[in-house]
Amino acid sequence: MRWRVAAVVGAVVLITISGPARGETGRFPSADPDPRVGTPDDPAFDCAEPDDEDAVDPCGAVWDEQFNLFGFAPSSTRLTATYRDVARFGQGQVSGVGADQAWKVTTGRADATVAVTDTGIRWENADIATKVRLNEGELPLPMGASTHDVNGDGAVTVADYAGDPRVVETNDNGAIDPQDILRTFSDGTDGDANGYVDDIAGWDFFDDDNDPEDVSSYSAARNHGSGRAEEAVQVTDDAAGEAGVCPDCTLLPLRVWDSFVVIGDQFGMAVAYAADEGVASVVVALGVLQNTITAREAVRYAYEKGVVVTSVSSDLNTANHNYPTNYDETVFINGCVADTHGLGRDASELNELFVNLGLGSQLPVSTWFRNSNLTQYGAHAHVCFTATTGSEATGQAGGAAALLVSRGRDVADDIGGPLTPNEVKQLLTTTAEDVRSENTVGVGVPDPAQPGFDEHFGYGRADLGAAVARIAPGQIPPEALLTGPAWWSMLPTTGTAPVLGRVAAERSGSFTYDLAWAPGVEPTDAEFTSFASGGGSAPIDGALGAIPLGAVADALPGAAAGTPSLDPNAYVFTVRVTVTDAQGNRGEDRRAYFAFDDPTALPGWPRFTDTGGESSPVLADLDGDARLEIVEADSSGRITVTRADGTPLPTFNGGRPWILPPTYNAHLDAPGFATGRVTAPNGGLRTPAVYDIDGDLAPEIVAAAVDGRLFVLDADGSVADGFPVGVDPALSAVALRTRDHHVKRGFLAAPSVADLDGDGTMEIVAAALDGHVYAWSAIGVARPGFPVRLADPAVADPVGGELISTPGIGDLDGDGDLEIVVESSEVYGDSLSTSPDPEDVAALFNRLLEGGPDAAGSFGRVYAIHDDGALVDGWPVPLGGLLPDILPFVAPAMTVALADLDEDGDDEVVAGIVSGTQRVLDGDGTELRQLRTQGPVVGGDSPEVQLVNLAEYPVIGDLGDGTLSIAKGGATLNTAINLLLVGQNLPYDHVLQVYDATTGEYRPGFPHAVEDYMILSTPAIADAGGGPEREVIVGTGLYLIHAFGPLGQEAPGFPKLTGGWNYAVPAVGDLDGDGTLEMVASTREGWRFAWTLGTPVAGGDEWWTEAHDECHTNRYGTDCRPPAAPQQLTLQGGALNFTAPGDDWLAGQATAYEVRVSARPIESFADWEAASPVVASTTPGAASTTETLRLPAGTTSVAVIAIDDAGNRSQLAAVGPGAGSGGPG
Fold first, then answer.
1. What kind of fold does domain 1127-1215 have according to CATH?
2. What is the mean pLDDT of the chain?
3. pLDDT class for 2, splitting at 50, 70, 90?
């Protein structure tokens, strides 16, 4: 694409479609250093200030003005919120990031474009639509003009086509906007040859077209992208609305998804596009579900092309690692708020809530330095912006980055060229206002703070006036960026680890750098110990030094011994690089690692991969050697099969990963992909099912791609006949996508495998984002009656909700045929209830305090359908929740769990939606009981409290006492309250809840506190500690995997430390065939783990993997684990000797053998079918015993399989000419 770049002198005048033109008052911007002089005339900017320069009605309170942009203390808080540090004691605290001070120097440039990767743009919003930079490479000249930039403002915008008679209004917005331009001039060609046809005004990666209009954002994400664009660049000083951080910058709207929770590769494509379009900054106010290679490379690609990527910390009040924020090159943004933020309006309505919370009545602002509970914190933090949510902060930050880039371009000749992305980061961090602990005191609990860097505020709150002032000769900080080892790496406690990075000071004659380490996640300057240094005049890219791991381990007691700790940060240390140039300017970067040697880790583990482990590992024997392999389908679309020692299985795809082909909307001609600098997107894969679906005595891998394709791979890695299959794109066509019908193309749920109608053949079941359940045969033929749309037939105009959770498959009516049970993300605030306004804090939480989650505000649905697609009588069942869709896309639906809880021969269903109570439903949909949501938390900070269910899913199992239990995550009520009263920091706990399934009451020892969320995941249940009991194994977002016994006790050797977000469900099985259990797990950050548990292998029904079993039925009691293949076959004197397998691989005892003989070698399933059956004369013995079967005289080739009591058949084991000596094993 070719942007027109023109010199801009002074303030740029942007012609808007409505309202007065920029600068009519003549006072903005002003060179007067007083921030109260020359303010923009936007009414909302400073309307509560007594010296507001505008002749408009004042607003009522500080909350109604843009205090977040101020570089001064608001008049209403300057006496109540004061600095308490010695240097500024008694002065009023500045409330914002000093944008008003920066505007004294620059208001941005039209050639500094901010890309907003989000839900798209509302074209009727003239404050941002008029700022959209149009692509002249796809446009004809305005009629009668000799240049695209008719008004000479340095950018091609809609104003340049204002007089073009070819452009008419097409959308009833009341004015010509960019949508009218693109509709007029789209001609079906790629005029600028960038791989995108007619990309005149951005791109829509969700619908894959050239109109990024936000037509379907919903729930909490409604108009999310437009909000971020307003914060960054909205029209300013036009006597209307508010001001944007970079008033004269332009906008590139990119629609990634219909919510702020998005797919990894969608984000990656958008960032690569933005980089190729030459933007100054990218606003990433997103939670990306997958850490993909494409996304990571796209961020690096943008950085290398000079783009500043500002990325949200996320909004969950925790230190777990959001993506893409965790990538090396991003600027990590969180929010700062006042202590009474959320308590500052409508005091009379809130008094009852305050009293209930023990806060008293309305209180004034005491501090502007609290880390907002609707953002996150951690060792990767850089700067905070004054904002309630991380998204709002990131919108501001994207504008701020473009403002700094603009100033750098203004003075490029003086400073030696434009600013680099790292220099922009250094300017923001080195000039930030340090948040000191004494200045955080006020109402509620202060956030921890210290001089210099800390987890909650990073380097401090952004000070844009100070940052802009540093963009001058001899004042720009040098560059510092660490690139290796990867963030949060698990490092050994001996030897060294090389540190990679870039240090440079190209605006100075020379520089020096220092590498240092210190124990902890936020060490002070005094705690660092130097271990390497260097310098020179030329940039250094590559090795900078080596970490002395032994010395690090000595400073972390227990690290070398692998002593488990309940403190997630017990074994964290920090590496910091500081760069100092010849003028004394300083740049810095740091990152956190773990030093830890776990004595229970298997040899060869842990391993680091270059992609996220959001999908769970699955254990299965693919090569028939009675040892389980680890099957992973990762977020970058790779299926790998690994042995217990960490090496690849040679028989699967030649020992290489199988890679998903590029996705349907990949623009492979775009420069980033065409040059190979960014890996082609494929959408990634969900957790695979593994089972012999076609009856050929060999397992298949069934893998669903996020983009809606479904593959079946044979055990050798080849694609099975009849596949891939996939969703019907017509069922999520663009025309169907609205705010009330938020369907999509693809799968978020894992596929399931089951014999639905009991005919002896398996079906594949998949719940799709288009709101339909699909079912195919083992050869890829669609099952009659499918796909079936899940929409409540009792509702006249049902909404369209995604199916995001893996179905449960069981027998609800005891007839022998299986039913499919799945929740839909439909939400109805209909006649069943009236939903409170999410902004009405008092109404929401007084309702919760009075009635708990049962005081539902809205209702979702759970469905049960027969094997022919028909609804089961009594279904769907409404499920209530207070705010079930507060997290769009990943809520409100949850995974269900099935079991015959009352032993009546049919299954019951455990179901609930986000923010609602979990219920036990009978097969006919009637409610049997609710699970308790009040109780004292064991090991936590909360007393007898109300608990809330978030997006944590239930499992069912026997913890060793012969009764069934239900286990799932949750949180105390204050966890949710903190997300609205964002400056209070009320004490809260995340909890593991374990119930008696027959009563719905908590088991003794539960709910038990854990350190972080367990969202979008389930526990597993297995023997992790030895003894007669079994443990609930659960991973959290803050690095630990726990194993709690039936009384809440932690198993020996736990918790396990992974150093990452344990999004995937651990899998348990015997990897090495030694008769004891191992456990494997993966993290979002890309680490894979395998530990020995040392507990005996046992068969049974426990929930030992995601969705209970390798078929993903979510049903306690389903047996999908076949016997292992018989091992060590010999044929001597008419007798077949072999080692017996078990019922579940090597556990238990098989039920029967099937033996066939032939005069020809039995080398394949076809050979087996052609061979002659013989009667086995031996009842199977216990696993690992020696079996002897008498065969007909003269037998030369024989094969045997084992069969268990569920009818599962082992792989083929054969002996004879051509079969190999001794067969498998």
1. Immunoglobulin-like (2.60.40)
2. 92
3. very low
Pairing status of strand 261-262 against strand 287-288:
parallel
- pLDDT, one tens digit per residue, over 327-353 is 999 999 999 999 998 774 443 344 444
Tell me how long the chain is. Answer: 1225
Q: Tell me the Cα Rg of the chain.
A: 31
> What is the per-residue pLDDT for 840?
47
pLDDT tens across 933-958, in order?
998 999 988 777 889 999 999 999 99
CB 317 within 8 A of CB 153: no
Does position 23 have pLDDT exceeding 90, yes or no? Answer: no
Phi, psi of 1211 (to 5 degrees): -70, 165
- Containing 410, the helix (H) or strand (E) segment is helix 390-410
Name the token pair of 1158: 């032939």
- CATH 2.60.40 residue ranges of the chain are 493-596, 1127-1215
Whether 323 and 376 have beta carbons less than 8 Å apart is answered as: no
Longest distance between any two alpha carbons in the chain, whole Å:
109
**In 1087-1163, beta strands by DSSP E:** 1087-1096, 1127-1132, 1135-1139, 1152-1158
Q: Under a CB-based contact definition with an 8 Å cutoff, are residues 409 and 437 in contact? A: no
> What pTM value is reported for the model?
0.95
Burial class of 366 by CB neighbour count within 10 A (0 to 12, 13 to 18, 19+): buried
How far is it, in rounded angstroms, from Cα 42 to Cα 235?
A: 9
Cα dihedral 27, 31, 36, 42 sign? positive
pLDDT tens digits for 1170-1213? 999 998 777 899 999 999 998 988 899 999 999 999 999 999 99
d(CA 148, CA 171): 23
CB atoms within 10 A of CB 901: 22
Q: What is the per-residue pLDDT for 846? A: 56
Helix axes 264-276, 293-304, angle to 10 degrees: 20
Could you tell me where in the chain the CATH 2.40.128.630 domains are found?
688-930
For strand 1087-1096 and strand 1076-1082, is the pairing parallel, antiparallel, or unpaired?
A: antiparallel
Per-residue pLDDT, 516? 98
- Least confident range from 173-177, 603-607, 835-839, 983-987: namely 835-839
Angle between helices 390-410 and 421-430 (to 10 degrees): 110
CB atoms within 10 A of CB 435: 25
User: What is 493-596's CATH number, 2.60.40, 1.10.287, 3.30.590, 2.40.50?
Assistant: 2.60.40
- Percent residues over pLDDT 70 in the chain: 93
Q: Any residues with CB less than 8 A from the CB of 839 and at least 6 apart, and which?
A: none
Q: Which two tokens stand for residue 539?
A: 């940039």
Tell me the C-alpha distance between 111 and 153, whole Å.
9
Return the CATH architecture of domain 688-930: Beta Barrel (2.40)
How far, in Å, CA of 150 to CA of 132, rounded?
15
In the prediction, which pLDDT does 1223 show? Answer: 42
pLDDT at res. 839: 42
Q: Are 951 and 914 in contact (CB under 8 A)?
A: yes
At 559-603, the pLDDT tens digits run 999 999 999 999 999 999 999 999 999 999 999 999 999 999 999
Cα distance between residue 697 and residue 1168, in whole Å: 9
Could you report how far apart the first and last alpha carbons of the chain are, in Å? 60
With a CB cutoff of 8 Å and minimum separation 6, the contacts of 134 are: 148, 156, 157, 158, 160, 178, 181, 200, 201
The number of beta carbons lying within 10 Å of the beta carbon of residue 1192 is 10
Give yes or no for residue 1158 having a pLDDT over 80.
yes
User: What is the distance, to the nearest Å, from the Cα of residue 875 to the centroid of all Cα atoms in its chain?
Assistant: 32
Please give the Cα distance from 274 to 267 (Å, whole number).
11
